[in-house]
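Page header: ASSEMBLY MODEL / two components / 323 residues total.
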Amino acid sequence: MIEIEVLKKIHFLKNLPDDTLEKIGIVAQLETIGEEAILVRQDKKMNLVYMLVSGKIFLNCRSASGKPLTLDELSPGQSFGIFAFLGESLSNFTAICPEKSTVITLSADKMIQLCEKDFKLGYTFMQQVVQMFKSRKDKHTRQFIHSLAIHPDMV
Amino acid sequence: MVKIEDLKRINMLKAVPDHLLEIIAQEAHLSIFGTNTQLFSVGQRVDIYYMLIMGQVALKVELRPDIDVILDNFQSGASFGSSALLEGSKASYTAVCQEPCEVITLYGPRMIEVCETNQELGYHLMKGVAGQYKRTIDARAQMIIKTLDSHPELKQSIDDIETLTPAY
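Prediction written out in full:
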């Protein structure tokens, strides 16, 4: 059981109503992760959504030619793995804790069960997921167009 | 009103139970659009959600005044215009019919109302839309990573590269 106040520190959850957060708090877990622990490996199935309460997480990936690329450094309040709520989902990065960290984990299967038992919660929750994905999709499209515009073959 | 059998041909509705498809069927209309019909354009408020039964629709954005980039070419079973199902959302691309198209349409503001009263339907529709966005996000991220793989120097020019990851 995780307190609502702790859940509200997570960007992905902060706009959800209190009654939804209460139910999420029941199925979520608070975990302490040791230094250098690997939370998720690239190309492996993701079953958990991770939300960082304290500490740091690096998201790294290897390109098709094997080059390492550090994509992101997560700070408290940020989450990853939200795609797991949609079922079959392979991670396209490796997540590593460079220091001792505290994370909230949420089982995607348990969350889906919760959504399908209480559709009011499910609808509110999935609207939140869609808004975040839309904003990210629009950003990716802009990045892609920008990378094309500056591509040496296009200039 | 359209037939449930037609709705079952739409990929994002495949997991939606029949009793909910019946509700969607009552709200839906079947339309035919000619080649080169522009369904909506980038930045425009979108009111209609489109589900393609037959034909091909290109989603494009302008790279430069003389160059358009086709982001996707949608064929039967695909759907687009998800902004119509989200309040206050605008199109991020222009949609143009590449050939005559048979399309099921849903009026977004009406569907938002229906979802507010039937949240089971709302949940399934939003889950379908989230799945579509996920596939697009993955595809775009892979394209950007592929570009960076062959031209790593471009990374300096993309200042929000960290948003390639699905971290929120």
